[in-house]
Amino acid sequence: MRVVRTIADLRALLRPLRDEGKRIGFVPTMGFLHDGHGALIRQSAARCDATVVSIFVNPNQFGPGEDLASYPRDLERDQNLCLETGTTVLFLPEVAEIYPTGFQTHVEPGRLAEPLCGQFRPGHFRGVATVVAKLFNIVQPDVAFFGQKDFQQTVVIRRMVRDLNLPVDVVVVPTIRETDGVALSSRNTYLDEDARKRAQGLSHGLLAAKAAFDAGERQAAKLVEIARRSLADVDSIQYLELVDAQALEPLAGAVDRTAALCAAVFVGGTRLIDNVVLAPSAVETGLNVSLSPQRV
Ligand code: AMP
Predict the structure, then answer these.
(1) What mean pLDDT is predicted for residues 118-142?
(2) Structural domain of residue 125, as residue ranges?
(3) What mean pLDDT is predicted for residues 108-136?
(4) Cα–Cα distance, 76 to 54 (Å, whole number)
(5) Which protein residues touch ligand 1 with a CB less than 6 Å away?
(6) Is 179 inside any structural domain?
(7) How much is the pLDDT for 178?
């Protein structure tokens, strides 16, 4: 595994690989890596000839009063995880490498950045879209891997890739959870024992709603209510919403298309997000029409 800090060094390393026709996978991260990141890197290593992992705590996606200054870091551990999971190149740019003096051009996502986290983190997805577009241009990967854990982020990025004709395939990897259901997150390190216990309500609620959905419950309000019941021990619920998985618009009545139940809560001063995707069968969405052979 090679470790590089500048765009020039990264490009010099990747150019011969690209010239040989190697397929390049890319996993952008903010570091303090865990098995969720590991799953993305492993997928990339399995599907691509070379895997680039970036660690960059992007100041432009943090709002005032958020945890930019205290965001956890452990470079030595991160390097080991990257090595173990099949990283070819680890890219560790400084802030000035990504945002040199005079930087002023941004990617402005549209409506998809407005609901859910967008309501509470103004400018967040603008910061994410901008840095991801820059990293795509720096790395020029064939495939980029993102976690379902940040569901709205995956939708915003897929839209950006289409809207700006970026030549990258986006792969979304399912959320990796602890055995008690809590989604792995770098921010879990902020939780003390009590908060960590209470955080279980978030995943328990969402997974209970998914279980109810899988057992046939289709009423949006009921599904939200099932999730809400498990959130009694969190300090506050920022949002808990069932939305169309593509448009991110709220769903009411019977769920007849792929939906995402998304939540953000505060526990012990830490903001946690999680989600489950609820996919009705092809029969319910009418997609089976052309798939099943015609019977006369
Ligand atoms: P971050 O370092 O938090 O910016 O995350 C980098 C990438 O890892 C993003 O695409 C996240 O969605 C993904 N990720 C974070 N946590 C998980 C998890 N528990 N399971 C799967 N992917 C994750």
Answers:
(1) 98
(2) 2-173
(3) 98
(4) 14
(5) 29-30, 36-37, 39-40, 146-147, 149-150, 173, 175-176, 183-186
(6) no
(7) 98
In a domain, 292, yes or no: no
Average the pLDDT over 290-294 and give the result.
Answer: 44
4 Cβ contact list (under 8 Å, min separation 6): 10, 13, 89, 90, 91, 92
| Residues 71, 160 within the same domain | yes
Both 119 and 219 in one domain: the answer is no
34, 37, 124, 204: the active-site residue: 37
Give the pLDDT confidence score for residue 283 in this predicted structure.
82
Same domain? 83 vs 225: no
Instruction: Specify the amino acid at residue 116.
Output: L
Residues 194 and 163 in one domain: no
What is the percent of the chain where pLDDT is above 90? 95
Rounded mean pLDDT, 169-183: 98
Using CA positions, which residue lies closest to atom 6 of ligand 1? 29
pLDDT at 76 over 80: yes
* Residue 106 annotated to the active site: no
**Judgement on whether residues 90 and 220 belong to the same structural domain of the protein:** no
- Domain limit, last residue, from 173, 199, 222: 173
The CATH code of the domain that includes 274 is 3.30.1300.10
Provide the number of structural domains found in the chain.
2
Is the pLDDT assigned to residue 294 strictly greater than 90? no
pLDDT at residue 288 tops 70 = no
Q: Is the pLDDT of residue 286 over 50?
A: yes
